[in-house]
Amino acid sequence: MMDMAERISARPMVPRSLICTPQAIWFWPGITLNYARGGQIHAVSRAAILQAATMLHGPEANFSRIVPAVETATGLLNVGR
Amino acid sequence: MTLAQAELDRSALPLLSGDGAELTRVICRRLEISRPLFLRSDRLPRRWSEADVELFAPDFDRYAGTARALEKAFAVGAQSPDRHPRWPAGQPDDGEFKTIDASEIVAHLTPIADGERPQVQINRDRHKKAVAAEVKKYRDAGFIVVERVRFFVPSVGFGTEVDFVVSTPGFPLPNPLFAVDVKTGEGDLTDNQRAIYPRLEAGSRPARLGGALRRGYSR
Fold first, then answer.
1. What sign does the dihedral B203-B204-B205-B207 (CA atoms) show?
2. How far is A48 from chain B (nearest CA, A)?
3. Regions of chain A where pLDDT drops below 70
4. Are β-strands A25-27 and A31-32 bridged in parallel, bridged antiparallel, or unpaired?
5. Which end of chain B, N or C, is more open, meaning fewer C-beta atoms within 10 Å of its C-beta?
6. How many independent structural domains does chain A possess?
7. Collapsed DSSP state (helix, strand, coil) of residue B117
8. Of A10, A18, A60, the CB nearest to B8
9. Are A6 and A33 spatial neighbours (Cβ–Cβ below 8 Å)?
10. How far apart are CA A10 and CA B37, in angstroms?
11. Does residue A68 belong to any structural domain of this protein?
12. Distances (CA, A) of A65 to A59, A69, A72, B47
């Protein structure tokens, strides 16, 4: 299992594979993790998020907090934050 | 930085797997985008063969538009010829970028390009030459050859791509004879190939049937 020290130490050196624009959250190279409905954006299914992450980051991504991070970030985008 | 981005940065994603690193390299080549300086962890063994990576990478072609639009946003610390000379030296368009020595930061991490010509690249070049030679042999003999035909078997839920399919001229479509996957190394069939090849012999259909038909492959 990846230890937290490795993740934190590497963070400043590693380009993000997960970014957001004002309209959506994107996984590298350009996979959107949101869809729009009723004037709001919503996160795609948890399975879709994990599939995108595990393709590049391996099975350990299943134990990250990417799903709640994307869901929370989606809520923040809806309020312009 | 927005609050949303800060939240994403706390997702605690692990570093790229070895398989993921190789996949990013092939995707960048296919989409013609620069390769972000993702770091990879070697803790997990590689599971995907070169053929597996080449099979998965086309699935990302549909993201070409957004990938190019977001290229700069993802390319923080991207490899540039000025900061990271190519390796081997003096290669303007080929070879790997020599990366910053990130392994000094975290000892057990290795950058994607580690200063040596990767064995997988050497193997791929050898494979390409062997395939080209085989294709030429069949074409010179008058056969129709369609390269890189992808098959998908719904009953197993995944597919594989063969190096080429040999057909004879026919009307309205050519008559496929057999599929060829050229092996140039010591490697055996991949798990996907082992599962799918028997089904190919029983008759299956290419994943992109329309495109395959236009290219002259009819099954």
1. negative
2. 14
3. 1-14
4. antiparallel
5. N
6. 1
7. coil
8. A18
9. no
10. 12
11. yes
12. 13, 6, 11, 24
Residue of A18, A29, A76 lying closest to B31 (CB–CB): A29
User: Which among B5, B8, B99 is the top mutation candidate for probing chain A, defined by the most A β-carbons within 10 Å of its own β-carbon?
Assistant: B8
Q: Does B39 touch chain A (CB under 8 A)?
A: yes
Closest CA in chain B for residue A21: B5
Domain extent, residue A72, equals 17-78
Cis bond upstream, residue A29 (ω within 30): yes
pLDDT at residue B174 in the model? 77
The pLDDT of residue A71: 92
Nearest CA in chain B to A55: B20
Of A11, A57, A70, the CB nearest to B20: A57
Contact B105 A6 (CB under 8 A): no
pLDDT in tens, chain B (219 residues): 478 888 888 888 888 888 998 999 899 989 888 888 777 777 778 888 888 898 889 989 888 888 888 887 777 644 444 444 444 455 544 444 444 333 333 333 333 444 455 666 777 888 888 889 889 888 888 888 888 887 776 666 677 778 888 888 877 777 777 778 887 776 667 777 777 777 666 554 444 433 444 344 433
CB contact under 8 A, B13 and A72: no
Is the separation of the CB atoms in B165 and B201 below 8 Å? Answer: no
Q: Note the pLDDT of residue B148.
A: 85
Nearest to B54, CA basis, from B91, B29, B82: B29
In this structure, is residue A8 part of a structural domain?
Answer: no
Asked if residue A33 belongs to a domain, the reply is yes
The C-alpha of B118 sits at a distance from chain A's nearest C-alpha, in angstroms, of 19
Q: What interface predicted TM-score (ipTM) does this complex get? A: 0.82
Measured in angstroms, the CA of B183 and the nearest CA of chain A are apart by 26
In a domain, A40, yes or no: yes
Nearest CB to B60 within list A13, A14, A29: A29
